[in-house]
Amino acid sequence: MMGKAVGLPPCKSCKQSGAIAVPIRPLLENQVFGPDEIRVLTTAFEDTLRTLRLTNRGDPVTEIIARKIIELAQQGERDPVQLREHAIDFLSRQVGG
Questions:
Q1: CB within 8 A of 14, min separation 6: which ones?
Q2: Which label site among 32, 61, 80, 95 has the fewest CB atoms less than 10 Å from its CB?
Q3: CA 25 to mean position of chain CA atoms
């Protein structure tokens, strides 16, 4: 599995600010998604990280996942389960290929 798994400390900047870095939000700023769509994308992103047991939001893999979910949404996918599954499949192909 790529990335840092459960049990590792959060990134230093997150810990110092007291905030949790959520890399999908900044990537959505220049996109044309409504509030409901953003909720779906955020849900898919969080579910993907939970499924992969990625807790370190500073891990570069989290940004790869966020970008893939946004790309899939730009292509019309709005089902959070499908977004999660396609993102996981994409990541698996990158690791295995």
A1: 20, 21, 57, 58
A2: 32
A3: 10
Q: Closest Cα to residue 83, out of 40, 49, 50, 34?
A: 40
DSSP one-letter code for 67: H
Q: Where are the domains of the chain?
A: 22-96
Tens-digit pLDDT profile for residues 34-82? 999 999 999 999 999 999 999 998 899 999 999 999 999 999 999 999 9
Predicted TM-score of the model (pTM): 0.74
List phi, psi (to 5°) of 8: -90, 150
Using the structure block, give the residue that is written with the tokens 């993102």: 87
Angle of the 60-74 helix axis to the 35-52 helix axis, nearest 10: 140
